[in-house]
From TrEMBL:
Signal peptide: none annotated. Residues 105-140, 328-363 form the EF-hand domain. It comes from the Eukaryota. Gene3D superfamilies: EF-hand. The keyword Repeat applies. This is EF-hand domain-containing protein. Pfam families: EF-hand_7 (PF13499). InterPro entries: CNBL1-10 (IPR045198), EF-hand-dom_pair (IPR011992), EF_Hand_1_Ca_BS (IPR018247), EF_hand_dom (IPR002048). PANTHER family: CALCINEURIN B (PTHR23056), CALMODULIN (PTHR23056:SF110). One of its GO terms (biological process) is calcium-mediated signaling. Keywords: Calcium, Repeat. One of its GO terms (molecular function) is calcium ion binding.
């Protein structure tokens, strides 16, 4: 893209990668990431820096991610986050026309953060303090701003061999979808899912080949249940969320299942499986907002009461000091209601939630994780290569 004589990636390309594909919009964070993987931020990105970036993004070790994230936040390399640094981070979380309200929300959030992280009460958050908290509550890893790609960046992980196979299919060079299945198994797969593939391609954003790829993963779960099995079990579904998607809240998993299937007591049908991915891979924020709000709104009342929000907030803070934990929960509860309950009626409606999240998408999952994070990216490499999410070079497909 930089010309036949180019040897490196440009800084502009690096920035566009974060903005467009990784959905990381904070230019200061992007610049800090660049500073951590290369010696000279003014020059182009060499291949060594590129590999370093992915070695962190694809790491399974929480400690490695904790160190990387703290270094990003600690722009002065002082070894701690002072009040000024945290204030700068928090100032990006809240925006609005009412300046007094925004400033009050920022001040409240600042106090909540320091109560949680600054355990020695010296007015600064050391790496050790940050690491202790995040190891207990990994969802607080990026508490001052997103540093890792979210689920929409999952296509970066697409396995090279799987991509080659899918490109071959698109070019008509391969008759079977998966080389790990023999001819009989491939034929069986086609016979079972042929009609469903066409149906789901019409009712979702996926093409037929993409639906095939998604159902192939489902089919392999089914095969694991024995030669006569026809469906994925609830246990397999739960384990997928716990092990691969890193979503540990069983109530949220149960709610997700209830939204994609009509009977919670039965196995997970292939239609439900495709529905799940149609939301996970959606490009439309509105679709994700509706899905997330439905998960939180377990009573189907159309709004989130104080009891519902309190119950969710209780999971965010744990510790041996019960008084401190309760105080943190209470503070966070007030911050959330100040932010979302704009008509001050003691409940958060979908309209209020949507208005806030549309302005600040990072608040989409404010009551608990509902979508796979970057560690869930391997689900793509596992077979569900979604072609519409992959930018194939024109020379490799269209010109042949």
């Amino acid at each position: 893209m930089n010309g036949p004589k180019a040897k490196t990636m440009s800084k502009a390309q690096f920035h566009h990668l974060f903005l467009v594909l990784f959905k990381i919009y904070d230019l200061q964070i992007i610049q800090r990431i660049l500073a951590l993987i290369t010696r000279n931020t003014k020059k182009v990105i060499n291949p060594t820096a590129w590999v370093k970036l992915f070695s962190v993004f694809m790491s399974n070790k929480l400690e490695q991610k904790i160190k990387f994230t703290f270094q990003i936040y600690n722009a002065t390399n002082s070894g701690y986050l002072n009040r000024e640094a945290v204030t700068l981070g928090v100032s990006k979380f809240f925006a609005g026309d009412d300046e007094d309200e925004v400033n009050e929300l920022r001040a409240d959030m600042l106090e909540v953060i320091f109560k949680k992280f600054d355990t020695d009460r010296d007015g600064a958050i050391s790496y050790e303090e940050y690491a202790v908290v995040v190891k207990k509550n990994p969802m607080l890893l990026e508490f001052l701003g997103q540093c890792f790609p979210n689920v929409d960046g999952m296509t970066l992980v697409s396995a090279q061999e799987n991509l080659k196979a899918l490109v071959s299919i698109k070019l008509g060079k391969m008759n079977k979808l998966d080389s790990t299945l023999d001819d009989v198994q491939n034929t069986r797969f086609s016979n079972i899912y042929h009609d469903l593939i066409k149906q789901m391609a019409k009712t979702t954003q996926f093409s037929e080949i993409e639906v095939q790829s998604i159902l192939l993963v489902y089919h392999k779960f089914v095969l694991a249940n024995g030669p006569k099995a026809k469906t994925m079990t609830k246990k397999q579904f739960n384990n997928l969320f716990l092990v691969l998607f890193k979503i540990y809240d069983l109530q949220i998993i149960e709610r997700i299942l209830s939204l994609i299937t009509s009977d919670l007591n039965k196995d997970v049908l292939p239609v439900a499986w495709v529905k799940l991915f149609s939301v996970f891979m959606a490009n439309k924020l509105e679709q994700k907002m509706k899905f997330t709000f439905q998960i939180y709104n377990a009573a189907n009342t159309g709004y989130l009461t104080r009891d519902v929000v309190t119950f969710a907030v209780e999971k965010f803070f744990t510790g041996e000091d019960e008084d401190e934990v309760n105080e943190l929960r209470s503070d966070m509860l007030e911050v959330l209601f100040k932010k979302f309950d704009t008509d001050r009626d003691g409940a958060i409606s979908y309209e209020e939630y949507a208005a806030v999240v549309t302005k600040e998408p990072m608040l989409l999952e404010f009551l608990g994780q509902c979508f796979p994070n970057v560690d869930g990216m391997t689900v793509i490499a596992y077979c569900t290569n979604i072609l519409s999410k992959i930018n194939f070079p024109k020379s490799s497909i269209d010109d042949k």
